[in-house]
Design brief:
The complex is a heterodimer of chains A (317) and B (377). Chain A is of the alpha/beta class. Chain A has twelve helices and eight strands. Chain A has a single domain, classed as Rossmann fold. The longest helix of chain A is centred in the C-terminal third of the chain and has 24 residues. Chain B is α/β, with parallel strands linked by helices. Chain B is globular, with a radius of gyration of 21 Å. Classes of the chains: A alpha/beta (317), B alpha/beta (377). At the A-B interface, helix 5 of A face helix 2 of B.
């Protein structure tokens, strides 16, 4: 059994007891803290958390302070998933032996950035999902290695300028398309996989709660707008996030048991991708004449993906 | 030799040196405090027709670099201690298969994640034996900005000469140090490039691992009509796996001897006021800068101190250290670890009374700490 929080509106949400404190060293306007808060706020159950090396880890546990009012593990860059899997397996074993007296099982949640998730921690995460641990893995996807100086990751989208895929005379920046982690994690047969965005907080909480109720490994890909590396003003985080979801660059959907896809948010007015790109410094060079074709290609990719998602939803696959 | 003046950082100089020395491939992964090497080389390599790839992790970073080395180009990876830990298995492969490769390690506090943004010299021992088994590492250590350039250039030539990975150790202080350096001109560096040996005869007579007992393998670049086999297993003259007793013994003995018997080609050190020294400070990397400053103050106070700074860390300049150890009464090792090189100094000097001034809290050692320590002795 588990106990979900019932939060009706934003005011209730903002005054709800918090297990992730606002006192942290994340950049002003960083979406990480909003997402983590929303995840932790979705349940009243005990939490056992892990964080991969990254912005979240270095900014929330600086001795002698911590932002976490819950059990929290940090090990390495690649193994947030396996650390929490180990804790979960231990819990299962203790329970089987009758050595735990709690009525409710704690929730096991691992956080990692896209570098930790899409790149270095990928095989570890895959192993956890194959073994079927009862855990949730939340990827804070800001499409860049923000903690080490803004290097590209395999989540960085085509055309973005990063320190190791710099835009300049000979290059328009990142040349590879973003890895489709949701499809990959769903292909493990996971009971629940979803993409969320902090600006759509109701949608997000619903998905987190569905994930907590699921039996088995759950993957949540959380879009996390990065004021420092995407290059926008700190006060615009939610506005940029709105553009991301409303332009369908980050479509919000879920995949159940790897076989049933539901779209959970349909923007009333779809914003052109160009507007989303124009709002961020990392895409600035795309607006030069020689690279404008890339913006057109962006739009075509987004349209094609949206079309694909809709066809899957319609066919209930 | 003409010199040029450049204002830069240690990490940037390492990247510039690599490109000047003919490096055309870089495989890496972000890690503090070495990421700037990758940033800069990602900028420089495309402009000269080279390739810089950011891989999905440290292991893939070195593996890609080794692949490029096998193909025949000059290749590099850059990382820090935790990255070397992950790369260790592949570094062993490069030792065994005799693939030339330069590994820049900008040292930070360890073990494990350690102190990512702070200085350390904790990878001295690691660079000697990153992987299991018998082989002989070559490790150079830059002690100032100019050497971030010159030692990387030298590393590329040594990698091709000895056909194995060559470490260049920087520490966080040197890597992020920003200032003026006098470095050789690009023309001089290019003129000094000694490429790896190749076999020119008929393909059927080519046996890459059939060489003198003190010489490295002769690996022709790929795609040139010569076929051979790469493996991490013990292998025969063609590179194919074998368990034949004598072949296995000879192979491993040769990996040792190709370095051990040519230490004179590798030896490199600096001596500062050692002629009349009554106390010898042994220091390397950024610490040697503080040691020199300390020696100036000590000499002003009438204390005859001198510095021995190994630039080639492995194999160590043991003979020279032995000579100095015999005539200088007091020896002090100053290191940003708990005496990793002191063990080597003790071995080389055949004496145990080597004093130590060590720091492992991520902070540099100041000249005054050294002065005070020397005055205590």
């Amino acid at each position: 059994m588990s106990e979900m929080k019932n939060i009706k509106n934003l005011k209730e949400f903002s005054t709800s007891a918090d297990r992730f404190e606002g006192a942290n060293l994340l950049c002003p306007g960083c979406a990480h803290s909003i997402i983590v808060r929303e995840v932790l706020n979705a349940t009243n159950d005990d939490l056992i958390l892990s964080a991969a090396t990254g912005c979240l880890e270095v900014c929330t546990a600086v001795y002698p302070y911590t932002s976490w009012d819950a059990s929290w593990i940090h090990i390495g860059f690649e193994n947030a998933s396996t650390a929490i899997a180990g804790a979960e397996a231990m819990h299962k074993a203790l329970k089987r032996k009758g050595r735990l007296k709690q009525e409710r099982d704690p929730k096991f949640v691992a956080f990692g950035g896209d570098g930790a998730t899409y790149d270095i921690g990928f095989q570890w995460l895959s192993g956890c999902f194959e073994r079927g641990h009862n855990m949730m893995y939340v990827c804070l996807d800001n499409e860049v290695y923000a903690n080490t100086g803004g290097q590209r990751s395999s989540s960085t989208p085509i055309g973005a300028s990063a320190t190791t895929s710099p835009a300049g005379r000979v290059s328009y920046g990142e040349k590879m398309n973003k890895k489709d982690m949701l499809a990959i994690m769903a292909a493990h047969g996971a009971p629940y996989v979803a993409q969320v965005a902090p600006n759509k907080w109701k949608d997000m909480i619903k998905k987190i709660q569905t994930g907590f109720a699921a039996n088995g490994p759950v993957y949540i890909n959380a879009m996390s707008a990065c004021t420092t590396e995407w290059k926008f003003l700190p006060e615009d985080t939610i506005a940029i996030s709105d553009m991301a979801t409303d332009s369908l660059v980050f479509p919000l959907y879920e995949i159940i048991d790897g076989t049933k896809l539901n779209i959970t948010y349909r923007p009333k007015t779809v914003v052109p991708v160009e507007e989303y790109l124009a709002a961020q410094g990392r895409f600035k060079h795309l607006f030069k004449d020689e690279y404008k074709y890339l913006i057109k290609e962006w739009q075509e990719r987004v349209d094609a993906k949206w079309d694909y998602l809709q066809r899957r939803e319609e066919a209930s696959v | 030799m003409a010199l040029r003046e450049i204002i830069s950082t240690g990490n940037d100089l390492a990247a510039i040196a690599a490109v000047d020395a003919g490096c055309r491939f870089f495989g890496g992964y972000p890690i503090t405090p070495s990421s700037e090497v990758m940033h800069t080389i990602s900028d420089l390599l495309p402009a000269v027709g080279g390739t810089a790839i950011q891989m999905e992790d440290e292991i893939a970073g070195v593996a890609a670099a080794i692949g490029a080395g096998m193909a025949g180009v000059r290749t590099m990876t850059a990382t820090s201690g935790p990255g070397i830990s992950l790369k260790a298995e592949n570094l062993g492969l490069a030792q065994m298969a005799e693939v030339p490769l330069v590994v820049v390690d900008v040292m930070r506090g360890g073990p494990s994640t350690g102190l990512p943004t702070r200085v350390s010299q904790g990878d001295i021992r690691q660079s000697k034996n990153p992987s299991h088994g018998d082989y002989k590492s070559i490790t150079l250590c830059a002690g100032n900005l100019a050497e971030c350039y010159t030692e990387v250039v030298r590393a590329f030539n040594l990698a091709d000469r000895f056909m194995q990975p060559v470490f260049v150790l920087l520490d966080e202080t040197i890597g992020h140090m920003h200032g003026k350096a006098m470095i050789p001109t690009e023309e001089d560096v290019k003129a000094g490039i000694v490429p790896r040996k190749t076999f020119e005869g008929p393909a059927e007579e080519y046996f890459p691992y059939e060489c003198a007992p003190d010489q490295p393998a002769v690996l022709n670049p790929m795609f040139k009509g010569y076929r051979y086999h790469f493996t991490g297993l013990h292998h025969d003259k063609k590179g194919f796996p074998t368990e034949e007793i004598e072949t296995c013994r000879k192979l491993i003995q040769r990996l040792e001897d190709k370095v051990e018997m040519h230490k004179d080609e590798l030896e490199s050190y600096e001596e500062f006021h050692v002629e009349d020294a009554e106390i010898l400070i042994v220091a390397y990397g950024s610490v040697s800068l503080a040691a020199k400053e300390a020696i100036r103050h000590l000499r002003e106070a009438g204390i005859k101190a001198g510095l021995f700074r190994p630039i080639t860390i492995w194999p160590s300049p043991a003979e020279r250290m032995y000579e100095l150890g015999k005539k200088i009464p007091k020896v002090l090792c100053v290191e940003l670890n708990i005496g990793q090189y002191r063990e080597e100094v003790q071995r080389a000097m055949s004496r145990l009374d080597i004093e130590g001034l060590f720091k492992v809290n991520g902070r540099p050692i100041s000249p005054y700490e050294i002065v005070n320590k020397v005055k205590e002795l």
